[in-house]
Design goal:
eight-stranded mixed sheet, 282 residues, 40% helix, globular, two-stranded parallel ribbon
Length: 282
Amino acid sequence: MKKLVVISVAWLAGMVICFLCLGWLLAHPVQTQIGNPPDDLRAQPVTFASDLGANVHGWWCPIQNPRATVLLLPGIRANRLSMVDRARFLRRAGYSVLLIDFQATGETKGDHITFGWKESRDVLAATNFARQIDPTAPIAIIGSSLGGVAALLATPPLKVDALVLEEVYPTIEIATRNRMENYLGAFGQFLTPVLLNQLQWRLGVSASQLRPVDHIANVECRMLIISGEKDRNTRPSDTRMLVERARSLQDVWFVPKAGHVDLYRAAREQYETRVLAFLGKM
């Protein structure tokens, strides 16, 4: 019996240590040299300050007499390179584009990834930058996963003309629980608090501050919500939570057979058709 208790305690301690390491890995900066932009984007490297001290790096891809400016926000642990394909089709359709690296990713320095909290300040700074550089153009945002979360958490709410949200979690509790269940089955929900309890002391933000579902009703611009039909990280039921709270929603699209992946690559032609139709009504 004593041996069994010792083994159980050692196993539990090992699991806790593993989850502490996992929390560090998830929030650890993912910085890299991006290099020169693709020639066809005709991009200008830009840097501007976020009000939390980060110098946000990005590419500004202007065209003459644009329909609007579209700000592209990447997902977690990704950088502006992940949004290049979207930038290409948007430029072909007549839009100027701004691609950025969030703090602690790409070439933008930062201490931690904060799952949308500090990143929301980068979105505000990027929106202000786009408005200053072309005051007459409407502004739209396409935010993938973390990028969409950051757009919703921005305070005060963003003053933009259109918002596309892709694979956005409703609350950090649900997002974490889903991932734990995906890897560990039903037992994963019991270990979810081990990750969530690290937020405050590791990042200085609580789970109660990472609830996009509480902010979506503040969005006043036109909105399109997209998610994967087979997404197990942001499940259809999670997306419907956002849909039910949204006041300015124009359309919802569940991409057939798609999981938690790059939805543009999963359904390129349909994505372009739906997004361009949505942006065209600004």
